[in-house]
Amino acid sequence: MIVELRVRDLVTVADATLHLGPGLNVLTGETGAGKSMLVDALSLLLGGRAESGAVRPGAGKAIVEGVFEPAPKSLRAVLEASGLDLDDDRVVIRREVSAEGRSRAWVNGSPTTVAVLEQVGGCLADLHGQHQTVSLLRPETQRDLLDGFSGARAEAQAVAACHATLLELAREEAELTARRDQVRKKADYLRHVVQEIDAAKLVAGEDERLEQEIRRLSHAEELRTLGDRVASAIDGEDGGALAALHAAERAVAQLERLDPSAGEWRTLVDAAYAALDELARQARDYARGIEDDPGRLAELERRRAVLDRLGQKYGATVDAILATRSESAAELDLADGAEFDLKAIAARRAAAQEALTAAAKALTERRRIGGDRLARAVNRQLPKLGLPGGRFEVTLTPVEPATAAGAEQVQFTVQLNVGLEPRPVHRAASGGELSRLMLALTVALARQDGIPTLVFDEIDAGVGGEVGVQVGHALAEVAGRHQVLVITHLPPIAARGDRHLVVTKRIRGGIATSDVEVLHGEDRVTEVARMLGDQDSESARRHALALLGETGKRVGGR
Fold this sequence. Notes:
The chain has helices at 35-45, 73-81, 114-124, 139-150, 153-185, 187-200, 206-218, 220-235, 241-258, 265-289, 294-314, 318-381, 425-428, 431-445, 465-479, 491-494, 521-532, 538-550, and strands at 2-10, 13-19, 24-29, 61-68, 91-98, 103-107, 110-112, 125-128, 391-403, 406-415, 423-424, 453-457, 483-487, 499-508, 511-518. It is of the alpha/beta class. The strands form three sheets. A six-stranded antiparallel sheet has the order 2-1-4-5-6-7, covered by helices on one side.
């Protein structure tokens, strides 16, 4: 609820502080004293439009600050989503408006935008007056309130969940259909790719082995010559490495006779002889194995040409070409399997649609029954509030197909005079009528409305006598569940206040200035007497005492 509202340099308000409490807070004062300026100040805190004309003459800026505590649960998610902190379960909002019309806002010391401020304000208070757009007029709020009143929140959540499932399946179906259609457009090309690569009968790593064999056949003569040269260098007719090694062996034998320790070298000589002999053998075999084979070389060249052609189209290596073949085949498989998958999704969508239809039907029935009950509850209040010809209805307009909000649009309509057509509430009533209609709704919805503070401005416009008494009763009933701030000219309403504030206007420094103070005891009696017509009249004071006594507000109390 609002604990404190501080206003500085706003039109006629130079510097005023309102200390508000739970229950019914009434604000009275002479016409033009500046009562509505305080409601305008609260509107600024809740994200209302800022205008340069709101700044007091001679001031550079208007400042409005409000303290709200405890913070409602609905506010926590809004603050978290906006990157704002909650300070010990209290919210402090500050708004500044410059003389040029520029506006700045803070929540708990952190700067924020007016859009965020409006979201925050929507969780803290509702303004009901001639110039405010109240949350009860929003279609989504009307729907949510009806669901709360009807005990249909579980059904509403079920509808939203079924609709979300249906949307997800539609998304999956659209994606799969798009992929299938894309594959179908190039299916002939993909089949050609697979067939062409398959016809080549490629073997992984084939390209490397092919290049190696082509090199051997292309250089056969040179390779034979080099092989023979290796063999001759080791064991040629004109001597070679083996002949030299024989000479070394004989020398080692002679050394061994003179120095037995040289015998260790014999092992090395034997190993060298065996290695060279094997090398010579392999070189001769290699040279003999190299043959000119123009036919084989031509065959390999043709095969290489096939690989080169495929490589230019599908990849630089055989492995890359084979990977292209696998990818193309996989896409073709997708096109073939997509029909099966689409049929499965279609079956799931049908089941989800049935579930949504059933859930929406259950929600519609809840709303229908709850709407009738809500209409009866509101219509019982309207005559008491000076609207004897008024008739409120909850209209459910079917919607096809059902949305996440159900199978109907919810709209509050009202017929305020006999013979007129029912119209949406925001188009059907004048300011005072709308305020009283909102009061009737608020009384009926008090258990469901989670907004802690309700502000009523000019709710008693055109009201007097017994109707004023009934309006006071209704406000007191709402104040049992909410903090209520009401600006009133009616004594029966003022007398019902748990806290009574009065606004007065004086001239200071040549400028009209509004002040506000909390009334107690005799001062309150005097103010109610003034509202009755004459604060100095003995009969008016007795009447004021009677009103305060009837409502339990003793002269010595608040």
